[in-house]
Amino acid sequence: MADKFTAEQLEEWKDYWELFDMEGKGNIKWGQIGSAIRSFGWAPTNQQWQELLTPGEDDLGNHKMPTKQELENKEVTFDEFIVIMAEVSTMKSTGTIEDFMEGMKVFDKESNGYVLAVEIQHVLGSLGEPLSHEEIDAIFKDVKEDISANGQMKYDIFVKHFMADPADG
Q: Helix, strand, or coil here: 115?
């Protein structure tokens, strides 16, 4: 599957790869895979790329996700990573930070970089594939301190938080 990329792409990505290979061993930690994939231009969800790492289901029939310990300790080589990239490249795009920033501008009525948090919560709970109250609370849990007394939040901070890879810390 890795043969779907050109030699030029592989050479360029090898250079990027070396930025993630902090120890110079030719490997990166599982927890760095999401950041590496995103730096190469794809934007899979964490669940999408993690499903590639741990195929199979648990006893309840749910997909087995990697543990925090696996994300911190297990490693992948560049050749193994390219196979993951090949799979990711076939997935439906989930959007980039730039896409989400552009979408937030629709709610920025004063063109000042701020949106009403309650309005974004309403949209998340009612449009497309609506999220549950619990899912919305989880999304906003770590940005509550960034919401002003009048309910405004700087959306670039929100989008960067929302798109952040949890394995990055």
A: strand
Going 28 to 31 to 33 to 38, the CA torsion angle's sign is negative
Burial of residue 41 (number of CB atoms within 10 Å: 0-12, 13-18, 19+): exposed
CB 114, CB 154: distance < 8 Å: yes
Identify whether the C-beta of residue 40 lies closer than 8 Å to the C-beta of residue 16.
yes
Two structure tokens written together for 26: 């030719």
Residue-wise pLDDT for 71-105, tens only, equals 889 999 999 999 888 888 887 766 778 888 999 99
Rounded-to-integer distance, Cα 78 and Cα 123, Å: 40
Q: How many residues does the chain have?
A: 169
Instruction: Output phi, psi for 62, to 5 deg.
Output: -90, 155
Query: Can you list the domains of the chain with their CATH numbers?
Result: 2-88 (1.10.238.10), 97-164 (1.10.238.10)
Angstrom distance (rounded) from CA 50 to CA 48: 6
